[in-house]
Amino acid sequence: MVNTILKEADLFCPNSVRINFTIYQLLRNFVQMVALAVKL
Fold first, then answer.
1. pLDDT band for position 13 (50/70/90)?
2. How far, in Å, are 2, 22, 25, 26 from residue 35 at the CA level?
3. Any idea where the domains of the chain sit in the sequence?
4. What is the pLDDT of residue 34?
5. What is the distance between the terminal CA atoms of the chain, rounded to a whole angstrom?
6. If you write DSSP's letter for every residue of 9-32 in order, what string do you get?
């Protein structure tokens, strides 16, 4: 069941979208760390 959902998600989610999402998460984490450093 879950595997089928993941396979369907792969069809609707090209690798480029997944890569962009990963980069977005990394950038968001980086911004949060910088914000914490500035507060200190």
1. low
2. 37, 20, 15, 14
3. 2-39
4. 93
5. 47
6. HHHHS-HHHHHHHHHHHHHHHHHH
